[in-house]
Amino acid sequence: MSQYSVSALAYFKILFHAAKHPHSSVNGVLLGKVERSGKINIIDAIPLLHHWTSLSPMMEIGLDLAGQHAQSAGLDLVGYYQACERIDDTSLAPVGEKIAENLRDGFKNAIALVIDGEKLGSGDVALVPYLPQGTVWRPCSGETTAFSTGSNFQLTSPDLPRRALAYVSEGRHESFGDFDDHLEDVTIDWLRNIACIPSDI
């Protein structure tokens, strides 16, 4: 199994997206690159939708634009993320499976991350990684819990959950925008979201 590392930038964006729309499903894509060692660095995240999270024309356009942005930054689309509408739901929706599988066509080690709403704000990483087993995507399980010591899934710094919670408490996520928001207000920079990104990362 490949190793995956989630950067502060990617982690904060995923959590800001969920915090901005706590009663909606949200989704987006993960940008990254592979090190010589084979480790996959998830460097950034691009938020897609919170209204129309089905396979719609808006989803296709958003994915295409996100892919172009990744390419211009010298990165690959390495995965997909989502938060479910129900706080206790950590399943990868059929739409998520389909998108993750499509991403896998361009990046064989694609991953999906599902936000665990019950663990948000607890200091836990609150991400459930999914990888394909054949054509079915399943949560990663084994001897080591994801994002714990020795796991193939790591954050670049163990204090990221605490810092993300502090930033949400400050209201930093309120200026976060996804592709849905951009469609309503074209001044929203959904591809980069520079306005809400902490200066210390």
UniProtKB/TrEMBL annotation:
GO terms for cellular component: EMC complex. Pfam families: UPF0172. Residues 4-136 form the MPN domain. Belongs to the EMC8/EMC9 family. PANTHER family: ER MEMBRANE PROTEIN COMPLEX, ER MEMBRANE PROTEIN COMPLEX SUBUNIT 8_9 HOMOLOG. This is MPN domain-containing protein.
